[in-house]
Amino acid sequence: MMNTGNQPKLSNNGLLTTIAYGIKGEVTYALEGSVFIAGSAMQWLRDGMRVIERSPESETMANASTNENEVYVVPALQDWAHLIGIRKLVEQFWTDAWNYA
């Protein structure tokens, strides 16, 4: 992330504009790159969860969803999968994905 101050800035290089933090009602914006974590998420679905065999299959699964609130992904917590809340989400996702296949 790169701090861009109190006004959102648009990137000319494919970065995303995001909120870095807010303190006492004042928001500070940033630019961030999300390619790495998106790739890590696909790798996790393929190698870790074995929900997909190839990354493009994730699009088919996403398009088959009828509810945008079915799955929550918290990449920052990927090493904390033992937490009960995250574990339940992962188990539910696994069950739904397995039933889909």
Automatic annotation (TrEMBL):
GO biological process, one term: glycerol catabolic process
Xref: InterPro entries: ATPase_NBD (IPR043129), FGGY_C (IPR018485)
Protein family according to the UniProt entry: Belongs to the FGGY kinase family.
Residue stretches making up the Carbohydrate kinase FGGY C-terminal domain: 2-77
Top-level taxonomic group: Bacteria
Molecular function GO terms recorded: glycerol kinase activity
Keyword line: ATP-binding, Kinase, Nucleotide-binding, Transferase
Gene3D superfamilies: 3.30.420.40
Official protein name in the record: Glycerol kinase
Pfam families (alphabetical): FGGY_C (PF02782)
Phosphoprotein is among the record's keywords: no
Protein's UniProt keywords contain Aminoacyl-tRNA synthetase: no
Organism: Weissella viridescens (Lactobacillus viridescens)
E.C. code: 2.7.1.30
EC top class named in words: transferase
Cellular compartments per GO CC: cytosol
